[in-house]
Every structure is written in structure tokens, then in C-alpha cells.
Amino acid sequence: MSTKAKLARNIRPLAEYRNEAHRCIRCGMCRMTNPDFVASHKYSDNCPRGTRHMFESFFGSGIYEIARALTADPPELEINDRLKQIIWTCTTCGNCQDTCNAIKGLEPTNTMMALREFLIKQGVSPFKEHEGLIKSIINYDNPWLSPRTTRGKWARKLKDLEIKDASKEKVEVLYFPGCNASYVAEMNPVAEATAKILKLAGVDFGILGNNERCCGSTAFRVGAVNWFEDYKKKNIEQLNSLGIKTMVTACAGCHSTFSHSYAEDLDFEVVHIIEYVERMIKEGKLEFKNELGMKVTYHDPCHIGRYSGIYDPPRTVLQALPGVEFKEMERIRHYSWCCGSGGGVKPAYGDFALWTAHQRLEEAREVAGANTVVSCCPFCEINLGDAAKTVGMEVMDLLVLVDRALGD
Ligand code: SF4
Ligand code: SF4
């Protein structure tokens, strides 16, 4: 059974998860990949923070025990820095929940989200790095302290494409690049490639440019849920006023946030660009001319994989690219190892995020024999990319490969 419909959707109050805590039988299944799918012991671990720290409290079962102890009357746990570390090193990757939900029907990842919300409501601050991200979204509508006036800069380089301004003229499809592809220089090529592909396929699309606002994902994942609920209202108002049929995004975080946390309030479909590219290939709208001559493996981002069940489209697209030799790693699809960046982990625990990424790169090289890891999420690509620089590997976005294979 897949938990995709349950991850991040309808996160309930912590008291409800507390009432389920007794159903955790300490079976330990949330510590490892489903045994039916394990190819080797070396790559059977599934939980980054548990594997790193090897204490019960860092695994899915520990989440339930912490939820129970914190909501006891009187509380049985002191809120200190160690507890904060346990709670905020979870990448919210959903791996424990995917396994546990299938056998016990429990939701350890959602319980972790409820724990964070519970603590923040009690005045327990997340880390200064998280506070900085939230303040930046309040002041600049992005987590990177970058001015609003530079959000659409990437598109100004592509004058020939005559990309429409969706806030001024009606378009069928809105391309929402998100904060990473808009502001982070090494991620700009993702936005550029996406726009070029949409143009080439003849899609009637536009962007919001400097009027685009953060989806709020980072704040939501660290637990600032009340704040997020308030912030998203303006986004809903703006996006619904555009009259679009479809929103496409090339960011797994934006996709997950819009399709789970906004979905009921939006008047249009939200599609990850790789699903859209798959559709366009099947409809004969994209024709590949260039041989790429590459050997690659694919990293499933948690937020389009476990959270949204998008496993086949990236693989179909990769296999359609001429001259690409594609080999899988061991931990794939539902059981993919997280990149280490999510849940606000990278800004607060950068070393741990990089350790997690290195585990993935080792698997890519050892199992798939690939020096190039392809993915579909700027968050994954930034973290895996930072680790890759130190071991002579490279990380690429699938859209950039699609653009190269299409040629000019
Ligand atoms: S959280 Fe689920 S998978 Fe983990 S020990 Fe408890 S029952 Fe088993
Ligand atoms: S969501 Fe991921 S990092 Fe968090 S406890 Fe579960 S498996 Fe571990």
C-alpha cells in the first residue's frame, strides 16, 4: 500500500497521534527498506538520521514515544537542545511512514510534523537558521534574502522566447520555477531549460516573474504551520485570479506543497514538469536530435516520489533520451534514500545533510557505476551537488538533459 495520499496531507493534532502510539510494536520496520525489496544489506538502511545516530529516538518508533512522553500530564520529557536536535534532524523524507503504514497503518512522518507544530505553538523556537528563512520569506517572499526585483532575472536572458507575463495576459499554463531555480545561480539552468522546452512544444505558457512568491514549503516543513496557513492565502488569491488551467513546476518541494497543502483551494491542476514532458513526448511534440553519450542513474526526490507517486515519468523520459545509458541504484521508488536536504535540515544541520548525500553518491557509483546522478528537484540537486564536488561526481537536472537532447 502506498502512503502518498497520507504523507503531508491532513496532518492531525498531536493528541490524535499520541492515541495511536500504543500501536507501535517496536517491530523496527521503519529502520529499513521493506525486506522484499532489499538487494544487499549494505543498502538496506532507509532513515538518514536514525542510521547516522543509531538511537531509537531518531527512528520512526522514537517519534511516537516522544509524542507520547511530551503530551503526558505532566510531560515526561524536558525540552532541551538534544530533544530539538532529535526532532529537527528529520528530513521528513517519509520513508519510515511508507513502510510502517503498509504494515501497521501508522504515520510516523506526519507525527513528526505534528510534533514540530506542537512545539512551535508552545513557543519553542526552531533554530536561528530556520527563523532566518521564515523572516526572509516574510520580507522578500523567498528564503534566500534576495530582492523581489531579481526573481525574474533568469527569464530576462531569454528575450527571444518572448515569455508571457501571466499576471498581465491570460495563459493556459503557468510555469512556477520556485525560489531555487529563480535565485540560486547553479539552478537557473533548470528554469531556462523548462521555458525553452515549453516554448519548443508550442505550449501557451507564462510566468509571474518578480510577482511570484515563495510557496512557503520550508516554513511549513520546519513546523511553522500557523504562519504558513496565513502566508498561503495571498498565493491562493493571486494564482486563482490568473484563469490558468495548469500550473507546472520543476521543483519537487513546490509540487508537493501546492498539490498537498494548497490543493483543495486551487482552481487548476498542479503538474510536475517531468509528467508534463512525458505527456509532450507521447503526443509527439518533442523530438530529440542530440546524442548525449552519458551513463547516469536517477535519484527519486522524496517529494515527487513517496509524497506524490511520480516514479515512472522521469524514468520514461530518461530512457527516451538518445545516447543515455541509465542504470538504477538499489534504493529506488518507494524505498529511495533521501538526499538529506529536506525538512529544514540543510540550513540547520549542514554536515549531516552532506553525510546523507554522500551515502547516496556512494550508492550511485558503487551500484549503478554512474558518476552522474540525475534528479528532478533543485533541493536534492543543490545538496547532492555540494557533496558531489568533493568526490569528482556531478549532479544534473533531468530538464537540462532534455533541453540538450532537443538541441537548438
Ligand atoms: S513506527 Fe511502525 S514500523 Fe516503526 S517500530 Fe513502530 S510499528 Fe514498527
Ligand atoms: S521521515 Fe525520514 S528522516 Fe524522518 S524519521 Fe522517517 S525515515 Fe527518518
Folded structure, characterized:
The protein has 408 residues and is an alpha/beta fold. The chain has 3 domains: 14-121, Fumarate Reductase Iron-sulfur Protein, Chain B, domain 2 (Orthogonal Bundle); 128-281, Rossmann fold, CATH 3.40.50; 285-406, Rossmann fold (3-Layer(aba) Sandwich). Helices cover 46% and strands 8% of the residues. It contains 19 helices and 9 strands. The chain has helices at residues 14-20, 48-53, 60-70, 81-88, 95-104, 108-121, 128-140, 153-156, 178-183, 188-200, 217-222, 225-240, 252-262, 273-282, 312-320, 345-348, 350-368, 378-388, 398-406; strands at residues 164-165, 173-175, 205-207, 246-249, 269-272, 294-298, 324-326, 372-375, 394-397. The chain has a 5-stranded parallel beta sheet. α13 (252-262) links the parallel β4 (246-249) and β5 (269-272). α1 crosses α3 (60-70), α10 packs across α19 and α17 packs across α18 (378-388). The longest helix is centred in the C-terminal third of the chain and has 19 residues, at 350-368. The radius of gyration is 21 Å and the shape is globular. 52% of the residues are buried. The mean pLDDT is 94. Bound molecules: iron/sulfur cluster (2 copies).
